[in-house]
Amino acid sequence: MKAVVAGASGGIGQPLSLLLKACPLVDKLALYDVVNTPGVTADLSHISSIAQIEGYLPADDGMKKALTGADIVVIPAGIPRKPGMTRDDLFKINAGIVQGLVQGCAEHCPDAYILVISNPVNSTVPIAAEVLKKAGKFNAKKLFGVTTLDVVRSETFVQSITGERDPSKTVIPVIGGHSGETIVPLFSQAKPAVKIPEDKLDALVNRVQFGGDEVVKAKDGAGSATLSMAYAGYRFAEKVMKAAKGESGIIEPTFMYLPGVPGGDEIAKATGCEYFSVPVELGKEGALKATNIVKDANDYEKKLLEKCYEGLKGNISKGIDFVANPP
Ligand code: NAI
């Protein structure tokens, strides 16, 4: 299993690379960034784990060398938010960065699983899909927008109500997109079931939707979530790799092009959104099946979903348009 981190020297990239270096499923780890990869690579190379590590800068065909032979590429490259910015404000810069990296994947590792972390995910995943389509290499089952941090936050924030010792034991489907009101946690579908007092529900949902802002504010200009994101990105990457190696029954929400995933068509029809995050069962070839959990939402959640559809459709079109009509 060769894993690549593109954007490996950044706030997310470094701890994510550390976790992948320590992961026994990874045989080879290639780090790619426009700065500092030699240092990060030298540092991580002293860790006594299985993964052999290589680091590349753009010079001397670095991107090609990093991506060639990759089985999984995780992309946290791009600028993060500062206080007062929305994820959409990042579009101008990050759209081009993701486009360039995914173009590289189309050329050098077209069969790899591609995990997009760079924001705004609601637009960067459609950008990635359009780039791959243009290159004739699009496989919807292997292109994932990483929304796991929203799931991780839901598990953590609901703990104050459940009192569970290990918050990760409560499974909460978080669906829709990955920004503000497009993030829809379905607490009604939690397993085991969770009873949330009515007067606490609005605040809990709001905290999941805008949890990223807490971190941006606390970091006070020094960026957005990096450590919790690296944990979440690793958790998702590990699931993809475990499924690739044959483990069955792995399900995690992720933002995908639904018409290209079994079971996705009916969800796309119901939501009016071709891209949407739902719990997806993972297998050797990527997504095996998208679960139509949208139909199980209660009336409160249906209202949240109406708002989600509105915002998400615009974000998706913006991404598609960026590739169709370059600025
Ligand atoms: P950062 O600025 O610390 O790191 C980004 C890294 O990308 C830098 O090392 C930079 O040199 C590198 N980079 C820039 N252009 C590149 C290119 N063309 N090729 C390769 N590397 C390139 O930013 P941070 O905090 O690590 O965040 C990265 C992205 O992840 C941001 O877009 C942020 O909004 C997003 N993010 C996504 C989350 C999610 O839940 N999906 C959560 C938190 C952040």
Please give a structural write-up.
With 327 residues, this protein is α/β, with parallel strands linked by helices. The protein folds into two domains: 2-145, NAD(P)-binding Rossmann-like Domain (Rossmann fold); 148-318, Lactate dehydrogenase/glycoside hydrolase, family 4, C-terminal (L-2-Hydroxyisocaproate Dehydrogenase, Chain A, domain 2), CATH 3.90.110.10. The chain has helices at residues 13-22, 37-45, 62-67, 91-108, 121-134, 148-157, 159-162, 198-219, 227-244, 264-271, 299-324; strands spanning 2-6, 28-32, 52-56, 72-75, 113-116, 143-145, 174-176, 183-185, 250-257, 275-283, 286-290. Strand 7 (174-176) and strand 8 form a beta hairpin. The model has no long low-confidence stretch (mean pLDDT 97). The structure holds 1,4-dihydronicotinamide adenine dinucleotide. 1,4-dihydronicotinamide adenine dinucleotide binds at residues 6-7, 9-13, 32-35, 76-81, 90, 94, 97, 100-101, 117-119, 121, 146, 149, 178, 223-226, 229.
